[in-house]
Design goal:
single chain, 507 residues, mainly alpha, Growth Hormone, Chain: A, 3 domains, globular
């Protein structure tokens, strides 16, 4: 099959890789980018919320646009807009310029993953289409694996703008390849989906509200809990209203009433669970390794990529097993066991842990979990709509829209949890920092003596107090991370138990 459709398969892989590369690199390189554009964490996370909101809207319009422009014009236009946004980001040194660039990138590239997955249906049904699924999953694994190490390398040895140069080069290659095979015929007028400005505005308003509330929860949850919760519920209600209107509308943008069934809802729940855990882990892991264990930012990037190599290994094994033994239960068990083992290994970690022996195996299992769950969901969720290209595209659109919200939710929940538990742990440790505490006095005296060899006595005393405070902060971050991984272990056990008794996904 690769010999018959090599350009299509390569394009699917590259297009999917671009989506996960750009998301992973920009998230991992958040600290150096914020420093260069002089943005606060709050401002940077608002840019991320804007990108996700526009991605939701663009995903919802993906099929609507391809029906009117034709596949080739649609993809080339999307790539051109994405490149324009990447150029803006690569040339800017300000928050405003970066925000404008990311907004343009979202308009162009928000639906890249949806487009790549729908392209698989350009292959004839049968074993050939499974080859397309393998190409798509390979792109997902490669993008996820390479993002942290590429981000750390370009920032360490070049400049953060090189992130966007990589994306520009890859999308130019995709554009060149797509000229060779993509059809350019618009759909007949009578077969096109329709929508209205009002419904799109409702989707835009509701999706931005949900994402903005999630973003604000990082900073306001403990100060304005009631307001955050109320606005969150109102935003969720607005989002649910959009889908209800679409389901009952005689000419919907998304054919929800023809898609929704028990299998599809269960699959979307599985996707959302996976993306939620992925978003949470992607927030906690760098903080855990840097703040808690004291590893450098560059080292964390390299080891996270090595760990996420597990996604590729898991997929290569699955690709060999699936055609002969497609029953999903074994993959559910393996995926949730990987999650449980990953979180348990990190929940018993100590400050003396070694990267190769103690941390890398856990990161590898995290990569296995991601691929085992997402690939299993991909093979099971869309079985009832695979015969109809329009329904399949709509099903993918809804899934990817939900994925954007679930990832943001995971990040928000992890942030709130870490803020809470870090504060509790810091207060518990800080109780010993008293001028009459013998252990505190002895430790600060030893540190002061050490620093006094290079600095005057007053400065040395200040540095000793600062060192103690930094040590307590690192310990509180480490203890909060351990508590987080303990919670994930429990959640993984519950999910494993549920997967064993569920009767929706069967061979």
């Amino acid at each position: 099959m690769f010999k018959k459709h090599p350009i299509l398969l390569i394009t699917i892989t590259l297009l999917c890789s671009v989506e996960f590369l750009q998301t992973g690199m920009i998230a991992f390189a958040a600290a150096p980018i914020r420093g260069e554009i002089e943005a606060s964490p709050e401002e940077y996370s608002l840019v991320a919320a804007l990108y996700a909101c526009l991605a939701v809207i663009v995903i919802s319009k993906q099929r609507w646009l391809t029906e009117r422009l034709g596949w080739r014009n649609y993809l080339l236009s999307s790539i051109a807009i994405f490149i324009a946004g990447s150029v803006v980001c690569s040339c800017t040194t300000s928050l405003m310029g970066f925000t404008i660039g990311r907004v343009i990138m979202a308009v162009g590239g928000g639906a890249f993953m949806t487009s790549a997955r729908v392209m698989v249906h350009m292959l004839p049904p049968g074993p050939g289409r499974f080859t397309g699924v393998k190409a798509f999953a390979t792109g997902l694994a490669l993008g996820t694996t390479l993002a942290p190490v590429l981000a750390s390398l370009v920032v360490a040895y070049s400049t953060w703008q090189a992130i966007f140069w990589i994306l520009i080069a890859m999308t130019i290659l995709v554009a060149f390849l797509s000229l060779r095979f993509l059809p350019n015929d618009p759909h007949p007028v009578e077969d096109r989906t329709s929508t209205s400005v009002g419904r799109i505005l409702l989707l835009a308003l509701s999706s931005f509200s949900v994402l903005y509330v999630l973003q604000r929860s990082y900073y306001d949850f403990y100060d304005e809990t009631t307001i955050v919760v109320v606005f969150g519920l109102l935003s969720a209600f607005a989002m649910a209203s959009f889908f209800l209107i679409e389901r009952k509308h005689p000419s919907p943008l998304l054919k929800i009433h023809e898609i929704v069934n028990q299998r599809y809802l269960f699959g979307i729940a599985l996707y959302c669970f996976s993306y939620l855990i992925l978003g949470a882990n992607n927030y906690v892991l760098p903080n855990f390794l840097q703040s808690g264990l004291g590893y450098s930012w560059e080292t964390v990037g390299h080891y996270q990529s090595l760990g996420l190599f597990g996604t590729l290994v898991a997929w290569l094994i699955m690709a060999q097993i699936l055609p002969k033994y497609p029953a999903p239960k074994k993959f559910f068990i393996a995926g949730f066991l990987s999650l449980i083992a990953f979180s348990y290994l990190l929940s018993i970690i100590t400050p003396s842990a070694e990267l190769w022996a103690n941390i890398l195996p856990a990161l590898f299992l995290n990569g296995c979990f991601v691929m085992l769950l997402l690939a299993t969901a991909a093979t099971q969720t869309f079985r009832d709509v695979g015969h109809d290209d329009a329904l399949f595209t709509n099903a993918q659109q809804i899934k990817n829209m939900a994925g954007q919200i679930a990832t943001a939710t995971g990040t928000a929940l992890a942030t709130i949890f870490m803020q809470w538990r870090s504060t509790v742990q810091y207060d518990a440790l800080n109780v010993r920092l008293k001028s009459d505490d013998p252990a505190f006095l002895q430790y600060t005296h030893q540190l002061g003596h050490f620093f006094s060899q290079s600095y005057e006595s007053a400065k040395a005393a200040q540095m000793a107090i600062a060192q103690v405070s930094q040590t307590i902060s690192a310990q509180s971050s480490l203890m909060a991370s351990i508590e987080y991984f303990t919670v994930i272990t429990v959640i993984g056990c519950l999910a494993l138990a549920f997967s064993l008794v569920q009767k929706v996904f069967r061979p």
